[in-house]
Backbone:
């Protein structure tokens, strides 16, 4: 016997004796199919390694004749480590792969068969671009084509569907056939038949509307599935593939080339599959093909159906059932129930929960039992119960956990023996701040999106500005206003405000000038005399840098441009002087690597194309990941429930166990409904069961001490419910809820952490001479009123500082529609015959405006909006041309109106007259259904009422008080030029009551007074407010104020 074999035998005997009877059975049975159902903490990695040792000792197989497939790269590393202890360096000869890595090797070893040498893996970004191209090519009447709103809405749905088709091996023909079967079965299904008499329907009648609705969903799915082959052709044309394709190529090659399959079947005499519950349909097919040569294959699968938590990635518990069924005559099934991790009370609590799931092997295979038994000699006698803690608020829960961890550390517990588990990353981020306050070492890994980090967002805005200025000179003033506030330049905000106000004043006096032009002009104008300070040096430096960078755009590569931005704009100098320079440099390098990768992928990529890529990534939520590792792995471990799988800790704090994080967490909408005829067994309540499995995984990480906690209230006082999984545990286990009261002294210890409560930023005040110059001429209008009520800072920036504003695709389209309607009525009035012009002339006016303002659209946006506008206006014309009121005033400016001593003005789209009675008409583009809430008056959600409602009331007040005319508004109407989802054109009349007039008059009066009192320097503080966030991100706030609740 060789020395190696002797060493292996000695090590194997040593390890084998540590195994229990069932583990030994699983290891000893090396011939024929074996399925091991291994619950948490039952030592599955140990038996996989032992079994490989046994094969090498007792057969003539070499390490390279063994194939071990697992689900993740981490699984490969763990397996290889364990095997090294057993068989030494030969562990590297055993084929341990993820499924994707295995398929990649098969392809690389047989390139001539696959003819894929010219293909590259597709990036997420390229994939989204291809989906956009696919959608742009949809025919006019395609069920998935959209013209407004998110026109690429179907991208994520198509991506999920096509990925599922590849993972499960579903062909378009297969799905289409199942759709036909499903539709044919609808009239026989209970949910589509009336059970009792309802309105005009009798018991037994079909719910035809519901059937039609269901058919529509199925036809959408069929249309989507019908694009699958087209998308695959597009990928092939671009020489791209994705990882799901690799598995399907190998399956196809194995099925069509018997010799190729036979080579791998001969090579791999023993096959082991870890985490079998997480395999998808195609991964399982690879295993089936490899073992199909033998009637009794030497295949060993190990998994736990109760820990299947990756269904969203295609994991399918059915694979274990089908495996058991396929080999039922020869299969040895071993259930490992000796748990070496946890105490019995922890296992009992976990069992109570998971027993409620129906989709379990023990409920579908006779004679199976999974009663876990605590078997670790050191702890199995410990019988203390897990704790359920109820805290008053989420903040107090975090404080309570932090203090408990502090106590454990003081008592000698090592930080690495403590695990904090929660459902979502956001919870951990917040909790980490509490730990840092008490200097508790933490270890957490989190993947950040570079595109969401402030430094990258600033560089991106500068790139976007340079692209805009290169394309159309002086077109990017709105962006320049924000760029000049970047801390790299060190310009006081009031200096930027004065510059913006000067641009606005020149617009109305001695000719229009852009902010960039004025900046250059001022930078190059010498000081008038010795005592004149001239332009602020920061503005001058910024102007010089920006002009140089704009000149660089067409003359140097993107990489060089990026480097110049870092150098010339002072970014690098600013970073090197910051306290967190190492992290900021990491962020900068990460973003630069992205630019280098994209220019390598597309050597002729220009700046505008790069900006388009970033826009696409932001819109489609494609992340540019940067892993931020906090602390060392010797710290307290913070992790999500998904991230906790495979780990174990002496103390586990399972935090945030509220319904709102678990079963009542809103799922993202969308996706296609798959017909149940596609599945062999219906999995009732699978979403709930999957969540229960995830909860179970978190519970079973605990070795000795388990603390489950939730809070009664949100930090803002809204009531919260505990998760139903806690109630399910309490239903059978006698675990009382312990109410934890946090002492006020302890609360004050954490008073520095007010980050979770929104605060209203206050900015530096402008000199009074500038403000009074604007306000002396200010007249209240509905736009200014809406701005102020939304956020006083929005009013300040838009109405006082008058920041430059650019028109986007939607507003320019709206302007084109307004222009066409104005022309239609003007020509009718000018003709003197009360005759409207033809439909062709009406649409031509729209087209003229669109072409005149072509620069506001991308190529795709222009083509889509033009086609959509032509269609919408044609139908609008046909619907209303015979019923338009011809006694009208068009685009009427109304000024010099005084209400409660407040001067007000407005511009009305259309006034329709019946004698002195007036119907005010305001045209609206966009989705009518989304706009309807804006037409409603004050409510709990919108105490100031919707913007459109206020506009309607404001116009009535304006016209009723217009002394030059004796007009009386009887109604205000919003005319939606775009149809709703059912292709109906809508006009929404707002009925205005005396109470509405009183409310809006009061809003006008009080807002006017606040403006005159200069109460516009402090924002609203809302999380989603652009201007409050702009002020906070650029450190422009001189003070942050707690938001006071408004009295009802």
Residues:
């Amino acid at each position: 016997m060789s020395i190696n074999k002797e060493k292996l035998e000695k090590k194997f005997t040593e390890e084998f004796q540590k195994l229990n009877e069932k583990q030994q059975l699983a290891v000893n049975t090396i011939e024929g199919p074996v399925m091991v159902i291994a619950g948490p903490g039952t030592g599955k990695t140990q038996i996989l390694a032992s079994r490989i040792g046994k094969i090498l000792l007792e057969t003539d197989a070499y390490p390279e004749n063994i194939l071990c497939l697992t689900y993740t790269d981490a699984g490969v590393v763990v397996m290889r480590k364990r095997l090294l202890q057993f068989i030494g360096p030969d562990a590297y000869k055993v084929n341990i792969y993820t499924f994707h890595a295995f398929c990649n090797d098969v392809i690389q070893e047989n390139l001539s068969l696959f003819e894929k040498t010219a293909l590259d893996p597709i990036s997420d970004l390229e994939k989204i671009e291809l989906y956009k191209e696919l959608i742009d090519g949809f025919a006019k009447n395609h069920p998935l084509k959209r013209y407004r709103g998110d026109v690429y809405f179907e991208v994520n749905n198509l991506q999920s569907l096509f990925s599922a088709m590849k993972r499960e091996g579903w062909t378009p023909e297969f799905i289409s056939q199942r759709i036909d079967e499903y539709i044919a079965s609808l009239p026989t299904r209970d949910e589509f038949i009336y059970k009792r008499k309802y309105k005009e329907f009798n018991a037994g009648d079909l719910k035809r509307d519901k059937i039609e609705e269901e058919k529509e969903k199925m036809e959408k799915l069929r249309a989507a599935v019908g694009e699958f082959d087209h998308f695959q052709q597009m990928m092939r044309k671009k020489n791209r593939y994705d990882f799901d394709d690799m598995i399907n190529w190998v399956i196809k090659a194995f099925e069509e080339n018997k010799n190729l399959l036979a080579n791998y079947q001969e090579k791999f005499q023993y096959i082991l599959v870890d985490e079998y519950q997480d395999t998808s349909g195609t991964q399982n097919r690879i295993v089936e093909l490899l073992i199909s040569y033998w009637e009794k294959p030497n295949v060993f699968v190990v998994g736990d159906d109760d820990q299947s938590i990756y269904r969203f990635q295609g994991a399918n518990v059915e694979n274990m059932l089908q495996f058991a069924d396929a080999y039922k005559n020869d299969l040895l099934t071993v259930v490992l129930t000796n748990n070496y991790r946890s105490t019995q009370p922890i296992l009992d609590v976990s069992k109570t929960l998971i027993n409620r799931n129906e989709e379990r092997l023990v409920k579908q295979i006779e004679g199976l039992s999974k009663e876990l038994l605590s078997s670790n000699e050191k702890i199995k006698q410990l019988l203390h119960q897990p704790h359920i803690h109820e805290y008053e608020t989420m903040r107090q829960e975090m404080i309570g956990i932090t203090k408990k961890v502090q106590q454990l550390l003081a008592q000698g517990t090592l930080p690495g023996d403590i695990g904090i588990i929660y459902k979502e990353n956001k919870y951990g981020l917040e909790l980490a701040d509490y730990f840092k306050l008490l200097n508790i070492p933490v270890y957490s890994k989190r993947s950040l999106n570079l595109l969401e980090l402030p430094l990258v967002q600033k560089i991106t805005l500068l790139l976007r500005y340079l692209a805009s200025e290169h394309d159309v000179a002086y077109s990017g003033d709105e962006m320049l206003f924000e760029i000049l506030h970047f801390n790299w330049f060190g310009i006081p905000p009031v200096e930027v405000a004065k510059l913006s106000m000067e641009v606005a004043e020149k617009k109305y006096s001695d000719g229009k000038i852009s902010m960039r032009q004025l900046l250059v002009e001022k930078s190059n104008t010498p000081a008038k005399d010795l005592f004149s300070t001239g332009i602020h040096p920061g503005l001058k430096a910024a102007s010089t840098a920006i002009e140089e960078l704009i000149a660089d755009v067409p003359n140097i590569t993107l990489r060089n441009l990026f480097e110049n931005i870092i150098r010339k704009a002072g970014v690098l100098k600013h970073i090197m002087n910051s306290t967190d320079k190492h992290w900021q440099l990491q962020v900068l390098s990460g973003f630069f690597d992205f630019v280098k990768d994209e220019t390598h992928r597309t050597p002729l990529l220009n700046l505008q194309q790069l900006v388009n890529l970033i826009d696409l990534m932001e819109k489609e939520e494609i992340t540019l990941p940067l892993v931020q590792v906090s602390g060392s792995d010797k710290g307290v471990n913070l992790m999500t429930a998904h991230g906790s799988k495979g780990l174990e800790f002496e103390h586990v704090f399972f935090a945030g166990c509220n319904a709102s994080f678990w079963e009542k967490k809103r799922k993202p909408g969308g996706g296609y409904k798959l017909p149940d005829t596609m599945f062999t067994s219906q999995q009732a309540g699978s979403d709930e069961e999957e969540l229960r499995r995830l909860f179970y995984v978190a519970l079973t990480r605990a070795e000795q001490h388990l603390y489950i906690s939730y809070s009664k209230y949100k930090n803002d006082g809204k009531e919260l419910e505990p998760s139903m999984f806690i109630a399910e545990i309490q239903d059978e286990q006698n675990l009382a809820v312990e109410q934890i009261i946090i002492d006020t002294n302890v609360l004050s210890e954490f008073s520095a952490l007010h980050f979770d409560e929104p605060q209203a930023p206050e900015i530096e005040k402008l000199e009074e001479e500038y403000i009074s110059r604007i306000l002396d001429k200010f007249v209240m209008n509905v736009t200014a009123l809406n701005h102020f009520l939304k956020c006083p800072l929005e009013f300040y920036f838009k109405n006082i500082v008058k920041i430059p504003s650019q028109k986007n695709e939607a507003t320019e389209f709206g302007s084109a529609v307004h222009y066409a309607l104005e022309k239609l009525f003007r020509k009718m009035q000018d003709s003197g015959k009360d005759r409207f012009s033809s439909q062709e002339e009406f649409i031509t006016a729209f087209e003229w405006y669109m072409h005149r303002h072509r620069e506001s659209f991308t190529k795709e946006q222009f083509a889509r909006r033009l086609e959509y506008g032509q269609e919408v206006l044609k139908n609008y014309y046909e619907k209303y041309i015979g019923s338009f009121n011809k006694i009208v005033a068009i685009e009427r400016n109304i000024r010099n109106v005084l209400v409660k001593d407040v001067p007000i003005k407005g511009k009305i789209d259309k006034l329709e007259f019946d004698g002195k009675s007036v119907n005010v008409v305001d045209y609206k583009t966009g989705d009518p259904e989304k706009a309807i809430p804006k037409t409603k008056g004050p409510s709990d959600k919108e105490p100031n009422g919707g913007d459109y409602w206020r506009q309607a009331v404001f116009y009535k007040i304006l016209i009723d008080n217009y002394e030059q005319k004796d007009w009386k508004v009887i109604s205000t109407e919003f005319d939606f030029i775009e149809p709703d989802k059912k292709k109906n054109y809508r006009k929404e009349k707002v009925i205005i009551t005396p109470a509405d007039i009183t409310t809006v008059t009061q809003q006008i009066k009080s807002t006017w007074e606040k403006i005159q009192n200069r109460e516009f320097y402090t924002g609203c503080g809302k999380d989603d407010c652009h201007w409050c966030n702009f002020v906070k991100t650029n450190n422009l706030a001189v003070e942050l104020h707690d938001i006071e609740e408004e009295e009802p």
In short: The chain has a mean pLDDT of 88.
